[in-house]
Design brief:
single chain; 499 residues; alpha/beta; Rossmann fold; GMP Synthetase, Chain A, domain 3; 2 domains; 5-stranded antiparallel β-sheet; 4-stranded mixed β-sheet; globular
């Protein structure tokens, strides 16, 4: 199929009565979504004047309508701009202005936030789900032929988290996303009987590709978790609807490793993404759930997003992101772009049909990121002799005490092993004598005894002196973004403010 919407329409016609999404006690079939998208597409075109190439913002919380809206926009040939619903009005205003939204689709709970955003950046039209077009008894299934489009056209404009400056809009085409879906289908051995458990925000590229597009295009199902709090409710939904694949972040697997003995998971596979998987969490999960593989993967929005994963049917190596997925190449290069031999640390460069077309309205940053068909990820790592890759850290997170390269993740892995540490992160702090010194931030298990002196003494036994944190600062919880990734920018800000 040449487009995402056409691929979905074809999938829906093959099994219109199959449940595509579970939502607490409610279910939605492929036919429900297909007819809903058919009505939505016509309404977008006829009432709102949406034409191919127009950018349409989607500001929705996790809910079934997200799928209908997504497919409707794609079927109309327009570009979906998924927006983080945790953003503040000025941040939404920036995305709306930068992308040139013609229409923003939102829900009643977020209308006030949108109103505040439009005070600085007018949005031509705003559509609330209350006024979203609904199919009637005469609405036919979405026709694959009416959804065909040039596969090189933009499908999604996904804004990165913006850890430095304003967020950048990654331009992802139908080809990019279809290629990544197919690569994931192959490596994860996905079949139509699989049920993907979706608990992270639907606007995130990891969820869009792996938890929405992948199951829907192969004829599988989505178990959309209504809320991750309290954890028992989340588990009940996962077990009741017999989820088989769980893509999530490390913190979720830490929680699952602590389940009581009488609770068994229905899962056949767990995939850790959206950040590194600490070795201690992997060990405790494997001990508690020996029959459920937990594999670490790696990706970034600019690659649609999946790049590498430990193959479920092959060797799973702790601390490794595995080999590149089918159709994707990874090269380790130095600062000048020269390819490095195995075991040498350098920047990961990625090439494949999944790599974005560039950054929206930003040719300078595009030129700095895309080089001769390769995507420069900004992540550091090395290739093992067996073809598996290891991520060391972000290039911008690397520390240089006394001019020596130190990777925070290496220190974090050691701290994570100390009794009572729930989570940790290491950042650099300027030092007059050494140039820079590591500082650790950590959150503790409830009620855990803790002594900073005991931690630092223990680290002396396990780390070289130049890697030792100057101090360890305890916080109630580490700052995270909407997908659970620890915000080291916020930790650096705390240091500047005198933490």
């Amino acid at each position: 199929m040449s487009s995402l919407a056409a691929a979905f329409a074809h999938s829906a016609r093959q099994h219109p009565d199959k449940i595509a999404l579970f939502w607490a006690d409610a279910t939605h079939t492929f036919g429900d979504f297909s007819r809903g998208a058919s009505a939505g597409m016509r309404d977008l075109q006829e009432r709102w004047g949406i034409r191919p190439g127009d950018r349409v913002g989607v500001l929705l919380k996790n809910r079934p309508e997200f799928v209908t809206v997504l497919v409707s926009i794609l079927a109309a040939g327009a570009v979906v701009v998924p927006i983080n619903h945790f953003l503040k009005p000025p941040e939404i205003a920036y995305l709306a202005g930068d992308s040139g939204l013609k229409l923003l689709i939102t829900e009643p709970d977020l209308l006030e936030t949108v109103r505040e955003a439009t005070l600085t950046t007018p949005i031509p039209s705003v559509l609330s789900l209350e006024d979203w077009a609904r199919p009637d008894s005469n609405t036919a299934l979405l026709d694959p032929e009416t959804c065909q489009t040039d596969p090189g056209r933009l499908a999604l404009l996904v804004y990165t988290s913006g850890t430095t400056g304003h967020p950048k809009g990654a331009m992802l085409t139908h080809t990019n996303l279809l290629a990544n879906v197919e690569s994931c289908r192959q490596v994860l051995q996905v079949v139509e009987f699989d049920r993907f458990v979706l608990m992270l925000p639907m606007f995130h590229s990891f969820m869009l590709t792996v938890c929405i597009l992948l199951p829907l295009l192969v004829g599988g199902s989505i178990v959309l978790i209504k809320s991750v709090h309290p954890p028992k409710a989340m588990l009940d939904e996962m077990i009741t609807h017999q989820g088989t694949v769980l893509p999530a972040m490390a913190a979720i697997f830490r929680l699952l490793s602590q389940l009581p003995p009488q609770l068994n998971l229905p899962l056949r596979l767990c995939i850790s993404g959206a950040g590194p998987l600490p070795g201690e969490i992997l060990k405790s999960f494997e001990k508690r759930h020996p029959k459920v593989p937990l594999i670490e993967g790696y990706g970034l929005t600019e690659a649609s997003p999946v790049v590498a994963v430990n193959p479920p049917g092959g060797r799973c190596i702790a601390g490794s992101i595995g080999p590149a997925i089918p159709g994707v190449e990874i090269s380790i290069r130095d600062e000048t772009g020269i390819e490095l031999p195995d075991q040498s640390t350098g920047e990961l460069w990625v090439r494949g049909a999944n790599v974005m077309q560039g950054y929206w309205n930003d040719p300078v940053k595009t030129a700095a990121t895309l080089e001769q068909g390769w995507l420069r990820t900004g992540d550091l790592g090395h290739r093992r002799p067996d073809g598996y890759f290891v991520i060391t850290d972000r290039a911008k997170d690397m520390l240089k005490p006394n001019g020596i390269n130190v990777y925070p993740r290496e220190i974090e892995e050691v701290i994570q092993q100390f009794a009572g540490v729930k989570e940790c992160a290491v950042v650099g702090e300027p030092d007059e004598r050494r140039g820079e010194r590591p500082v650790a931030f950590l959150a503790l298990d409830p009620g855990a005894p803790y002594s900073e002196r005991a931690l630092l003494d223990w680290l002396k036994q396990n780390l070289a002196d130049f890697k030792l944190p100057r101090r360890a600062i305890v916080l109630p919880a580490l700052p995270r973004n909407a997908t659970g990734k620890i915000l080291k920018t916020e930790l650096r800000k705390l240091l500047k403010e005198g933490a």
